[in-house]
Design goal:
The complex is a heterotetramer of chains A (775), B (110), C (478) and D (138). With 775 residues, chain A is mostly helical. Chain A contains 33 helices and two strands. The model of chain D has no long low-confidence stretch (mean pLDDT 83). Classes of the chains: A mainly alpha (775), B mainly alpha (110), C mainly alpha (478), D mainly alpha (138).
């Protein structure tokens, strides 16, 4: 099995998911879980290879012309992500089957979820920038479907749209970034770009690349101030939140930064931009979590905190930070996945997930409680859990951050204090204390819904106890991949009594204090804090969306006013500009001087034509307009006759007669011909009209200065009788030399005839049909 | 003669445009007629004018004996007149129908 | 075969003529019409194959040597356009069987439709600038009639604007032709390409080229000449909108490309720079317009405008890669946009409206339609995404349709679980409506997953455009 | 339709004259000013006059065929003239000529003439379709 097959497997099975779901009913979740489980096993088989320091790459051409290939690359980083995605995915599918049991749209849940999983795998495994982008965007779309799962609720739709627009904007920015990166580095493959890192960092595009790529990563990974979409996306069913917002989608941005670190990292820009955003996000959102009582929101903001931490670590750039990053990443994925599932189970069984309405559930939901607690302890960073090791490493990394160690360490401790308090909120409140009556009659969730928290929770514990299980196989290669150079380290539970340990104790104590004071905090500072950091950014989103719409409405009213005369005005005005400018500046103005060859009656005829059109334009009565029109038409016919075009003259005469008859026929049936009412409007029209006429006349004057070569006429004259057997050359041109024109011409007449017939007759036919009730 | 006709074409074009920028549909249609005349005259003029004889080959000859007018623009204008007439007739009837159905009030599009 | 170049105009003309002979007999017209589209499809594919394997083809009508008679020329761009018009002609005709009511059928829908195709194909093939005007008019008059056919108020209002603006466009075009003839004494485009470079006053040639920029720009619906499009495209039955949406503006784009690669390359720095500005503004104004709309076909209409901007951007940049992009995008856009109109039409048939407020529920009850729409949405968004803001706005307005028509429950049936709110469509009609949609969606997916052959076609087409020597030699027989 | 005795009488006289004149104009068109378009317009004028004086019902009866049918027929003839050239192995719309002598008169018969007949028919059909519909609209 190749990696390509592994990535596409999710998509393929997704297509069949609806049938499988219908066929197997409630056990479909268990059956479909085989897919991610199998993928997990497949990726796990790469562990020995990766552990030995090797990497794996495969490439299948897709559009070789523009260097798009399905090329996949497995190193420590991508393998870590692939294992998280498929591993947690397994339990999410099972959990979803239980959570959404009997839901009418469950088939679509499987479909979107499996596609999402495939897209995520594509993101983390792609070596080609464009396929990476495509998978990246597919995660946006599939997550849109997943977030909007309860699509009949307006709030769900809004949240889904918000997530799509925010991550979509970022995605497009990222596309710009990767294209520039490919241009700067001369390749589409990340593995090749790593070798060109110096070139890219020196390149004029560097700042643009950095900003665009960060825009993509920050929006996807919900960095402040783009974080608002993530908590809002808690409208999604819990399995979705558990998957997207703990372990996968939001970590795509983190992945991207980690992946690009060897290419873009190491500069001051990178350092301050990435670390800065990460640190701010970490602190701000950690405390935001405390302003909510909805378990999922609390978890969502603590997720944003974790994302901030990860981004901050990537920005720091030194080996400790990389080490901390990968360990914290895994630790967070495990405990957050479990906690989300736990929150969902509570919600599912109790009918609410507001911690103030819950209490004493530990007896009725023992399994959920037990495994949830393990996960929460890991989140709180209690020793013996993986979360503890992660936190210790974060502190160590912060201490080692030479530019501003104190600032960062204070930020990290502050954030982690809030995290400890959050752990308390989601566990102690609902499960301890007195049992409270809830909307639903509570009992333990089915096995499908606690198996996931069980496995993930236990893993947090196992890895916490035996961290060396991780370090060699995956953590060292992963951290090395992020750093871009081989790293060596060893994970241990006990580092001795050092500064990080002391900080951990401080954190824990601080967390407990904050938890105790939570009810007071909620009543005092939290509302203001929430307004500043959660409500305002979202209001900014609404504001920018609304202003964009206002601009759209305004410009549509301006351009698409519905008034034909404005349309004509714009078009003519534009033409005058477009033609007039090169005419004056390039072609030149030529005023003819020789007027001597014009006969007296020709002057008269010209005068007649001009008088005629002016009369037609100013006439108040339709009749005068028609008569003036006739005068102009016949004068033109005379011109044709004077200059040796008898066929033309006759045709013009006949057509003019018919025209006048038709206009008269119609005019009888219509009201008069009022003029433009406002004098200003009239003046404006005159200016436009006169400049249009001037443009034509001047262009004509210029054209007459170019000598004319009538070579075509010569050919027609010679062959008209000899080959085409006709003495009337004009007629021969019409029916022979250029018969195709005439064929088109009679087609126009044919259609016009049928069209006019239909315009008048179909009207009556439709009316009749309507009366008979046929339409 | 060409310069004079160039001026006439300019005036015809101006007037046509002026009429087409008005509210009244019948005026617009009159504008269409003048516009088509202006363009035809323009093509005719650009083929250069001559007072020589019409582009006909006398009986008994294979080619004309004297200078003749350029037949090509004549043929083009003839085609254009006919096409213009077909389009105008349709526009006229369309206008008429529109008048009957909705009058002159513009329909909002935005 | 020698007459492959003639067939794309003669088949529809013959079909149209036969249709007129059976005027008022809707059934006969329909069968003749459908047979005609099949023949046209086959002929157009043969033409593409011929040009692909044998290079640029030219045919001299009436056996008069170029530049004296009228030439038809098929280079790759032309034959690609012809083929795509053959495909669209066929699928939309099938859709029309279920979409066009009996009255419109009786009053000549199919013959008119064919003559529209004839005009379109003629424009793509002709190598004579005046002849191009004639095809333009053939196309115009049949689109006028198709647009007004049915005489609803909205149709008439849209048609008046469409007709008047296009008449102005035609007049400007004809003036341009007059000037070209006055400057060079010829109408043959290959000959013009040579002779225009010999005109002493290059500035005058540039001046004259602006007449073409305006008239083709009107046809292509670029900023600020696009008004007729949003004013009219949402008014006729959707089969008509669909073929308009797919093909008509692209004729304008084609002629712009042809004119500004073959004829007017004297002052590229000036002319193509103007095109660049126009294309940028067109891209932006189009999507902004779409964002302000709340009716499916209006949204899609404004998207067309925006996407025209992309197509002529390639012409403006005037590099091989940019032109490849243009050609590829034109093909892609025609297929996707036509299909979106067809999908919109089906949604309308099911929900009873094009107004977003009144639509809903399709996600739950018509999953396959959902799937197709989703694919088309992603597709449009990705292609538009090259320009960040425009891509985002495209996504926004496409998603607006999705939110309203697919996700929101059908108004008035919020609590219904049986799908009772939808209109019933007979099995026969459903098949006729779905077949074209699925066909085009399949094509889109093929292009998406296996773009290589299309890329290669675009590549060769772009090469020919940048170096017109082959074109000129094929016509003038040098 | 205008009820007027003078008009009706005049039309009865004019109608055949106009019709003959129209055919005359058509026939001379290849060698002298005239041709399908001019001839067609004059022919249409004859029927139009008839329709205005005696009503469209009578005019339609006199014409026997529908204007739309006439249009289709005209297009058909025009295409036919092109197809003849194709069958002769030349490009579409290449003139094919024959010069038979019938009753001592030299006739030049060519596909361009057939083409011009098509033009004539379309022009008559078009004009009549317009005039009849407008007249019948009332």
């Amino acid at each position: 099995m190749s990696v390509l097959v592994a990535v596409l497997l999710g998509f393929v099975v997704a297509v069949f998911a609806p049938w499988i779901s219908r066929l197997l009913k409630d056990s479909a979740g268990w059956a479909l879980a085989i897919v991610p489980a199998g993928l997990f096993a497949y990726f796990a088989s790469f562990l020995p290879l990766i552990a030995s320091g090797e990497t794996f790459r495969e490439s299948t051409p897709w559009v070789p012309y523009i260097n798009i290939h399905f090329s996949f690359y497995i190193d420590g980083l991508s393998l870590l992500f692939a294992l998280i995605i498929s591993g947690i995915g397994t339990f999410i599918v099972i959990y979803g089957g239980g959570y959404l049991k009997g839901d009418r749209d469950i088939a679509r849940f499987y479909l979107s979820l499996l596609m999402f999983m495939g897209s995520m795998l594509g993101v983390v495994l792609s070596d080609n920038l464009l396929t990476l982008f495509i998978f990246w965007e597919l995660t946006s779309f599939t997550s849109y479907l997943l977030i909007g799962y309860y699509h009949e609720k307006a709030a769900s739709r809004r949240a889904a749209l918000q997530a799509l627009l925010v991550t979509g904007t970022g995605g497009l920015a990222m596309l710009g970034g990767v294209i520039l990166m490919a241009l700067a580095g001369g390749s589409m493959e990340i593995t090749e770009l790593v070798n060109e890192a110096d070139v890219i960092r020196e390149h004029g595009f560097y700042i643009a690349i950095l900003i665009l790529v960060c825009a993509g990563a920050f929006t996807k990974s919900a960095q402040f101030p783009f974080h608002y979409w993530l908590p809002a996306a808690m409208e999604a069913p819990t399995p979705v939140s558990a998957y997207l917002h703990s372990a996968t989608m939001v970590k795509a941005g983190v992945y991207l930064l980690a992946r690009f670190n060897p290419i873009l990292g190491g500069t001051d820009w990178w350092l301050w931009l990435v670390t800065g955003f990460g640190a701010v996000t970490m602190v701000v959102s950690a405390w935001l979590a405390l302003s909510f009582t909805d378990m999922k929101r609390v978890l969502a903001y603590s997720t944003v905190m974790a994302l901030g931490t990860l981004v901050m670590l990537i920005g720091m750039g030194h080996p400790y930070a990389m080490q901390a990053m990968v360990v914290f990443l895994l630790g967070h994925s495990l405990y957050k996945g479990a906690l989300f599932m736990m929150a969902g189970s509570v919600d599912h069984e109790a009918g609410t997930r507001d911690v103030l309405l819950l209490g004493g559930l530990r007896k009725v939901m023992p399994y959920t409680f037990a495994f949830g607690t393990i996960a929460a302890l890991s989140m709180a960073g209690i020793p013996l859990f993986l979360g503890f090791i992660g936190k210790e490493l974060v502190y160590e990394a912060a201490l080692g951050f030479s530019p501003a160690p104190v600032l960062i360490i204070i930020a990290a401790v502050l954030a982690n204090i809030a995290l400890v308090a959050s752990s308390g909120i989601v566990i102690i409140r609902p499960f301890f204390g007195e049992f409270k009556e809830t909307p639903k009659h509570v009992h333990e969730a089915p096995v499908s819904m606690w198996i996931g928290p069980a496995v993930l929770g236990v893993l947090s514990l196992v890895f916490g106890f035996l961290p060396f299980l991780l370090s060699d196989y995956i953590m060292v290669p992963a951290a090395s991949a992020v750093a871009g150079v081989p790293l060596e380290f060893y994970l241990a539970i006990w580092h001795g009594i050092n500064l990080p340990l002391i900080l951990s104790v401080v954190t824990l104590l601080g967390g407990i204090l904050v938890y105790k004071a939570w009810d007071n905090l909620r009543g005092s500072v939290m509302p203001g804090y929430k307004t500043a950091f959660a409500t305002l950014p979202e209001a900014a989103y609404d504001f920018s969306l609304n202003s964009m719409l206002s601009v759209a409405y305004w410009q549509t009213l301006l351009f698409q006013s519905g008034n034909l005369r404005y349309y004509v005005m714009t078009i003519v005005g534009f033409t005058v500009l477009l033609v007039g400018y090169p005419l004056v500046s390039k072609a030149g103005i030529y005023i003819p001087v020789d007027w001597s060859d014009i006969h007296f009656y020709e002057w008269l005829l010209a005068g007649l034509m001009i008088a005629g059109v002016l009369a037609a334009a100013t006439a108040r009565s339709g009749l005068i307009a028609v008569i003036s029109l006739g005068v102009v038409g016949y004068s033109i016919a005379l011109i044709y006759l004077l200059f040796s075009a008898p066929d033309l003259a006759i045709t013009q005469m006949l057509v003019e007669t018919l025209t006048v008859i038709l206009v008269a026929l119609v005019l009888i049936k219509l009201p008069g011909v009022p003029r433009e009412p406002s004098p200003v409007g009239r003046a404006r029209n005159i200016v436009i009209a006169v400049s249009a006429g001037l443009m034509v006349t001047l262009t004509l004057f210029a054209a007459f200065t170019v000598p004319f070569d009538p070579f075509m006429a010569g050919y027609f004259t010679e062959n008209s009788y000899v080959i085409a057997h006709g003495r009337n050359i004009v007629n021969v041109i019409l029916v022979d030399f250029r018969a195709l024109d005439t064929l088109g011409e009679i087609t126009v007449l044919a259609v016009a005839g049928v069209g006019i017939f239909a315009l008048i007759k179909l009207h009556n036919a439709v009316k009749q049909a309507k009366e008979e009730g046929k339409i | 003669m060409e310069p004079l006709l160039a001026i006439v074409v300019g005036v015809l074009f101006s007037t046509a445009i002026y009429l087409m920028m008005q509210r009244n549909l019948i005026r617009i249609v009159i504008g269409v007629i003048i516009l088509s005349n202006a363009v035809n005259l323009l093509i005719f003029t650009l083929g250069r004018l001559t007072r020589a004889s019409a582009p006909l080959i006398p009986y008994g000859q294979n080619v004309p004996l004297e200078d003749i007018a350029n037949p090509l623009p004549q043929a083009l204008v003839l085609t254009a007149i006919v096409i213009g007439f077909g389009l105008f007739a349709f526009a006229l009837v369309l206008t008429y129908r529109t008048y009957k159905e909705i009058g002159t009030k513009p329909v909002k599009e935005g | 075969m020698d007459h492959l170049l003639t067939l794309p105009v003669i088949i529809p003309l013959l079909t149209g003529a036969l249709g007129f002979l059976f005027y008022k007999n809707g059934t006969a017209q329909r069968w003749i019409g459908l047979a005609g589209t099949v023949a046209l499809l086959i002929a157009s594919i043969l033409l593409l194959v011929d040009v692909w394997s044998n290079g640029i083809q030219a045919e001299q009508f009436g056996n008069w040597p170029a530049p004296f008679g009228i030439s038809f020329v098929a280079d790759l761009l032309s034959s690609i356009m012809i083929t795509i018009s053959g495909v669209m002609g066929f699928v939309v005709a099938v859709y029309a069987v279920a979409d066009i009511d009996k009255t419109r059928e009786k009053f000549g829908f199919y013959p008119l439709y064919h003559i529209l195709l004839m005009g379109i194909n003629g424009t793509f093939l002709t190598g004579d600038i005046f002849n191009m005007y004639v095809w333009f008019e053939v196309m115009l008059i049949s689109s006028f009639v198709l647009l007004a056919l049915g005489n609803s108020k909205a149709q008439l209002d849209g048609a008046v604007k469409y007709v008047i603006i296009n008449l102005v466009g035609s007049a400007i075009f004809l003036m341009g032709i007059g000037f070209l003839y006055g400057l060079t004494g010829t109408l043959n485009m290959a000959e013009l390409s040579v002779r225009l470079n010999e005109v002493d006053n290059a500035g005058l040639v540039t001046t004259v080229s602006m007449f073409f920029m305006v008239s083709f720009g009107i046809k292509a619906a670029v900023f600020p000449l696009f008004f007729w499009l949003p004013a009219s495209y949402h008014t006729p039955p959707v089969a008509i909108s669909a073929i308009f949406a797919g093909m008509l503006t692209k004729v304008g784009v084609y002629t712009l490309i042809r004119a500004f690669t073959l004829l007017f390359t004297q002052e590229v720095a000036y002319t193509h720079h103007i095109i660049l500005w126009i294309s940028g503004l067109t891209m932006l104004i189009g999507v902004l317009g779409a964002a302000a709309q709340s009716e499916v076909r209006r949204i899609l209409s404004f998207h067309i405008i925006s996407q025209i901007g992309y197509m002529i951007m390639g012409l403006a940049l005037y590099t091989p890669l940019a032109l490849i992009g243009s050609v590829f995008y034109i093909v892609h856009h025609i297929i996707v946009k036509t299909n979106l109109f067809l999908v919109g039409g089906l949604a309308r048939k099911l929900t009873g409206s094009y107004e977003l407020k009144k639509m809903g529920g399709l996600y739950r009850y018509y999953p396959w339609l959902t799937l197709i729409y989703a694919a088309l949405e992603i597709d449009s968004y990705w292609i538009a995404g090259v320009a960040l803001l425009v891509g985002l706005l495209t996504l926004f307005s496409m998603t607006k349709i999705w939110m309203a028509a697919f996700w929101t429950p059908l108004p008035g049936y919020e609590n219904d679980t049986t799908g009772a709110g939808f209109n019933k469509i007979s099995r026969r009609d459903m098949f006729l409506l779905v077949f074209p949609i699925v066909t085009l969606a399949t094509l889109t997916i093929i292009i998406g997953l296996y773009p290589e052959p299309f890329y290669e076609l675009s590549l060769k087409a772009a090469e020919d455009l940048l170096d017109p020597t082959n074109y000129i030699n094929a016509v003038l027989g040098k | 339709m205008m009820k007027s005795l003078i008009l009706e009488t005049a039309t009865k006289l004019l109608f055949p004259l106009l019709l003959m004149f129209s055919i005359f104009l058509f026939l001379r068109g290849h060698n002298d000013p005239g041709g399908g378009f001019i001839g067609g317009l004059v022919g249409a004028a004859a029927f139009a006059l008839f329709a205005i004086s005696s009503g469209t019902d009578k005019a339609r009866k006199l014409l026997r065929i529908n204007p739309t049918f006439m249009i289709g027929l005209g297009l058909f003839f025009a295409i036919l003239s092109g197809v003849i050239s194709v069958m002769a192995g030349t490009p579409f719309l290449t003139g094919q000529w024959a010069f038979p002598v019938v009753f001592g008169a030299d006739l030049s018969l060519g596909s361009p003439i057939l083409f011009d007949i098509g033009v004539y028919l379309v022009v008559v059909g078009f004009t009549l379709a317009v005039i009849f519909s407008l007249e019948e609209e009332g």
